[in-house]
Amino acid sequence: MPPRVMGIVNVTPDSFSDGGRLASAEAAVAHGLTQVEQGADILDIGGESTRPGAAPVAEAEEIVRVVPVIEGLRSVWDGPISIDTMKPAVARAAVAAGATMWNDVTALGHAPDSLATAAGLGCDVVLMHMRGEPRTMQADPRYDDVVAEVTDWLVARADAAMAAGVARERIWLDPGIGFGKTTAHNLALTAHLDRLAATGFPVLYGASRKRTIQAIDPTATDPADRLGGSLALAQEAARAGASILRVHDVRETVQALAVQAAVAGAAACD
User: Fold this and answer.
1) Catalytic residue among 65, 170, 226, 246
2) I need a surface site. Which of 12, 23, 24, 169 has the fewest CB within 10 A?
3) Nearest Cα to 29, choosing from 92, 61, 76, 84?
């Protein structure tokens, strides 16, 4: 089964690729609905940038940014909505507004009540690996075996979530491409994503427009010029068993996956 496509809706002034583009809730809702028309299965709403060097956003401000967007989408669309936040209070407000998934870059490690909050909400939870925190995570990250270390750490976080009361079937794992990792680390995690999928937890993969693509193609200094690399990484992740692809370019990703599936179908008929 091809992976589901998660469209990114950033309501932030400073996200690495599209910061400031969706300056109002109305613009963000319209963008989300356009992504649904283009084939997005899930929408991921974020009110705080987690790009390298990003400054934190106050809890109240983050809620003000994301709740009207979720409410606006929910009023006209009944599909899955994810809240991209590390803060339990924001997750609670988002779920109350209609979100059905909590996408946490800290794997429920940001606050003492993160695990209990996830269990109480009963929504799906994405546990992502990040070495350090956004302001410092790219300061010389090192691993002995990045694939083994990320996989083991995520499984341990999944165990902690289940011990706190989160149902196993609600848990997704994300290797955190670009979060406290070099280009070599990101490529290794992509090449061996099947090892993370082999844990039995569904995998979310997000490498859309990230700097790893620029490291391979130095001319791609503008994130908007990284479509080809984004599609290549998405297809590699799909082959390796990713269940969700988190992307900026929904229509192009949906098309690439459809062509990939058609080729695979033709090969199966040989």
Assistant:
1) 246
2) 169
3) 76
- Give the integer Cα–Cα distance in Å for 6 and 32: 10
Helix or strand holding residue 8 (H, E): strand 4-10
Q: Can you give 71-108 as a three-state secondary structure string? A: HHHHCCCCCCEEEECCCHHHHHHHHHHCCCEEEECCCC
Instruction: For the chain, list the domains and their CATH numbers.
Output: 4-268 (3.20.20.20)
Confidence of residue 77 (pLDDT cuts 50, 70, 90): very high
Q: Contact, 258 vs 239, CB < 8 A? A: no
Q: Which of 210, 226, 239, 251 is catalytic?
A: 210
Give the pTM. 0.92
Residue 135 annotated as catalytic: no
| pLDDT band, residue 16 (cuts 50/70/90) | very low
Whether 65 is a known active-site residue: answer no
Helix axes 59-74, 25-38, angle to 10 degrees: 50
